[in-house]
Amino acid sequence: MGFAVGIACVLVGLVVSRPAAIAGVVITLIFAFLWARDVMSPDRKAAEEPEPKPAEEPDEERYPRNVFLELTTLGLGGVIGAIVTLPVLGFAVLPAFTADDPGGVDLGPLDNYPENEWREVTFLLDPAAGEVSRRTTFVRYNGESNGQPSMTLISNRCVHLGCPAQAGGPRQDEEREEIETEQAALVMTPIQPANFSCPCHGGAYDTEGNRIAGPPVRALDRFKYSIVNGNLTLLEPYSVGSVEGTGADAKITAYGIQGPGEHVDGLSAFLYPIQPQDLEG
Amino acid sequence: MAVVPPPTRRRKRRMDVVVKVVNIPLDWLEERSGLVGGVKYFLFRKVPRDTNWFHTLGSATLTAFLVQLGTGVILAMYYKPTPDEAYESIRHITHDVTLGWLVRGMHRWGASVFIILLFLHMGRVFLFGAYKYPRELNWLVGVLILPLALLMGFTGYLLPWDQTAYWATVVGINLNGTGPFVGPLLGQFLRGGDEIGADTLTRFYAMHMLLLPGALFALIGLHLYLVVRLGVSSPPWSKSAAGRDRPEPEASRDGGLMQPGPRGGRPRGE
């Protein structure tokens, strides 16, 4: 062991400082000498001889060398294995939970959103990631409420299993507009939805996002928003249990964002105590 | 019946030369590795007299796996696992690369064949009672192989990166996400983040072509080792196997890992 410590000291010393390396050389030499003397000694040779069966009794009393070697091999092997494995495992798992919040998304001037009309807006959540991060929200301007503009921003992701829900109703594709913002291009399409429904498994929602049919377990998710310099800015999403009332007067039971298919209220909500974003610092 | 001419002396001598030429390198190999004996042992081991075609399902599954392995390696030479290029590279493989349509087709349909054969093989083993003593461990290994194979299908399905692939994977990951307690964390891990994106694609690609095949390879090796060691089981209607005594369990004579007992690896005789 001392020999190993000396070698380690030499190696570390070579990187860190010269005195440490010299000390390492001294330690190494001392223990090398002790080791060599140990190997030469007749005791050692006797220990290596396979002992005859009757001699097993005294063998149990002392702490035999082979047990020591076995344990140190296993122990050191375990330590080395852990040193190599743990960072790699962490690298495989942790990045999924430490992603940066991409921040707000500029959805263009408020003038683009006439009162009580719906717009289907697609935007790049993370312009650096490109088209793969394109998301859709249904936006309605509800007029002023207490002197502040009131908006409804409903996510199009079905809360059953995450397919894209569609607006049920007329849709003016010929009036589709592309708007350049500071971050990326938006595509806005006027829609007159009577409801939202999902093509995958038939989930259906009313225009406030409440479930009216199919397998979804809660109302459609919404986005927080703010008005920055007269532009509508989309902030982080949140989950919704249910919505009472409509438009600016809607009473929303809001929860932290949860994955599709996860209950936010009732007994089943206890099945999902830990959310990934709870772990993010 | 083929007509065999009576061997003349010259013929016989020529035959001896041929045998020698074949045997010299084989003997060289055998002396240094024991491989020839091993292969002979594997190929010419005894199987019950009354095996039937259902016993070939396991080998068929193995063949399907090897086809997937071979075609997959070639496909990896042309596939590009990035969101901007994945779909285009698949299109390139299918339409431009010589015989690409064939290799991709083999991989795509072979995947289904592999899964179907897995289930048929599993059904055969179950219905024949071949999972019973002493082959329980091999059933357990097979039970581990099955979900890995299904995961191969799941991770491979995303790689074409078209609308079907994308939304099927969204649904698949979110299904995992609805699992109680650990579900949301599992979903996050599979996505490699909050959203499906470039990291999801590369992560699925790495799992599909490195992690899962490696694990499958190891487990299939163990599976085959156990098949060879324990021998093929007779069908349940077999008369020859009925009424035989159970072989004495050999493992109990071994002292465990720390003190190796008599060397294992001997086959149980018929």
What does the model show?
The complex is a heterodimer of chains A (281) and B (270). The relative contact order of chain A is 0.10. In chain A, helix 1 runs antiparallel to helix 2 (18-40). The mean pLDDT of chain A is 85. With 281 residues, chain A is an alpha+beta fold. Chain A has helices spanning 2-15, 18-40, 42-48, 56-61, 65-93, 276-279; strands at residues 105-109, 118-124, 134-145, 148-155, 166-168, 177-180, 185-191, 195-197, 204-205, 211-213, 219-228, 231-244, 251-255. The longest helix of chain A has 29 residues, at 65-93. With 270 residues, chain B is mostly helical. Chain A binds chain B through residues 70, 93, 95-97, 99, 125-126, 129-133, 161-164, 200, 258-262, 271-277, 279, and chain B through 83-84, 167, 170-171, 173-175, 177-178, 180-181, 183-185, 187-189, 191-199, 258.
Summary tags:
heterodimer, A: 281 residues, alpha+beta, 5-stranded antiparallel beta sheet, 4-stranded antiparallel beta sheet, 6 helices, 13 strands, 30% helix, B: 270 residues, mainly alpha, 9 helices, globular
The quaternary state of the protein chains shown equals: heterodimer
Main sheet makeup of chain A: 5 strands, antiparallel
Straight-line N-to-C gap of chain A = 41 Å
Q: Structural class of the helix and strand makeup of chain A?
A: alpha+beta
List the helices and strands and how they pair.
The complex is a heterodimer of chains A (281) and B (270).
Chain A: H1 2-15, H2 18-40, H3 42-48, H4 56-61, H5 65-93, E1 105-109, E2 118-124, E3 134-145, E4 148-155, E5 166-168, E6 177-180, E7 185-191, E8 195-197, E9 204-205, E10 211-213, E11 219-228, E12 231-244, E13 251-255, H6 276-279
Antiparallel strand pairs in A: 1-12, 2-3, 2-7, 3-4, 5-8, 6-7, 8-9, 9-10, 11-12, 12-13
Helix pairs in contact in A: 1-2
Chain B: H1 9-33, H2 35-43, H3 57-76, H4 86-95, H5 100-127, H6 136-158, H7 163-177, H8 183-191, H9 198-230
